[in-house]
Amino acid sequence: MNFKMPVHSLLLLSVFLSGRILAQESSEKQPNLLKSKDQIIAGATLSYLPSWYIKKDFRSGSTQAIQYQSQFLKFGILFSNIQLENPQSHLLETFPLREVSIGGTFNFKKLSVGHRLFDIRGILFVPSLDLSFGSMKAGDYSQYNGKITPNVSLQFPYVAIDVKFNTVFRLGKQIPGVKNFSFIPEIGIKFDALYSLLDAEKVYIGHAEGTKKISGTSYSTTSKKEGDYIVTTTYRHDYTRIIPYSIDRYATVIGPIAAIGPHYGFQNLAYSGPTRTVGIGYYLRGGILSADFIYDFGKIGFASSMEETQTISNPKPDPLGKVNKKDFSNPGYYRAHRFQARIGMDLIELYYSTFGKSLTVERGQGKFTRVIGGIGLGYAALSSPNYENAQGRFIADSIFDNDYTRLSTSANHAKFGSNGTFLTLYCSLEAGAIRVTFESNRYFRANLANVKSISVAYMFPYNRIKKKMIAIRSLKHAD
């Protein structure tokens, strides 16, 4: 029996089958984005941990830490205090204890549980292992540490809760009072730099080649014996070197952004009272430039004295004078409300600009990771001074009243501090929505508050968030 199918039927059947096959291939090539596992690729973590690595008789308060992560690399700073014997007075004094560390993190992706999309939807559980090496310093003492840290991270939209189990061991010489080996639990809040939300993309910037001329001077010495004397001769050598270069540059860019978000400032210094401020900022980023407008309030620490006392014979010392970092006798703080405007420039782009414009990002190519240097100007409204020592005001009055040469200025007594302008020189490390800033402040009418501080800002790029939320809604409707 012969069966013949009409040609038009064969065509319809082939179209139907090809459509089914294409649909299956398309579904295989387009996985469900709502089940994505977008881990935090870059971010900053603020942590509190017990000071168990310090022997009990030497402890002075808890420990804080800031850690910056960019993919594999981690960079951290630890802050605490330790009681050590002053080599001059032979008395126990409190010294700031600092550790700077660098290391790597290894995420166990196959063990992660949950789903997370665009950094703003879902919950993901991620285990990891951190390995790091650090340099710790307190007063004139220093030591090196190694650290192995199992870590579990519960990652929510925008933030994560990290629980760490630090195993710390000393390498080489030792700071008195610091243990050789310790186990320290740690809990921190990690702020996501929003790598996925910002559509970070590695792009080719440009190529440059040529030569650089470097000039300098070096010195060498020779010694020889002439009779009963040793004669040493120093020779000066002026040199010029021509160094060729050829550079292909790539950068991870996110384009310009406008953002709003919280701003937190802090510092613990042995010679100053505590700085703790909270506030809000409006942040603009584009090309190599940045601008910030910040309002905050809280405690502004001040020092016991200045390096240069303002007296009848020295009535006009340096208006940007430095505080006396060796005087721990009577620090305190003002309560303050501050508003400031800042402008900065990407220092890495400034470096590349020396090779030519072909290696710098364009106006619309804001980078994901930047190092910003800049200046800020603001106004601070200050309260009456508060002292760490219960008798602090009495001590400050006695020192001032018993020296008739001291002028009635804020450089000599914190009670003369008043509302006024202040200047900030700063350097920021930025990663997407995260900014960690190291600041040097100068208060023109409250000189004793001329201390350094650190601030952390979290920037919500509201236009990008709105765009991704619309995309998520469309995915949910299509599912």
Write up what this structure looks like.
With 479 residues, this protein is mainly beta. It is 12% helix and 53% strand. It contains four helices and 20 strands. The strands form three sheets. An eight-stranded antiparallel beta barrel has the order 1-2-3-4-6-7-8-9. An eight-stranded antiparallel β-barrel has the order 12-13-14-15-16-18-19-20. A two-stranded antiparallel ribbon has the order 10-11. Strand 10 and strand 11 form a beta hairpin. The longest helix has 23 residues. It is globular.
- Give unreliable regions as ranges: 7-28
Which oligomerization state do the chains in this entry correspond to?
single chain
Radius of gyration: 30 Å
Order of helices and strands: HEEEEEEEEEEEEEEEHEEHEEEH
Q: Tell me what portion of residues adopts beta-strand conformation.
A: over 45%
Going across the major beta sheet, what is the strand order? 1-2-3-4-6-7-8-9
Structure summary, number of beta strands: 20
How much helicity do the residues have? 10-25%
SS field, number of helical segments: 4
How confident overall, as mean pLDDT? 87
Q: What is the terminal separation in angstroms? A: 48 Å
Which structural class do the helices and strands define? Answer: mainly beta
Largest sheet: 8 strands, antiparallel, barrel
Bulk shape: globular
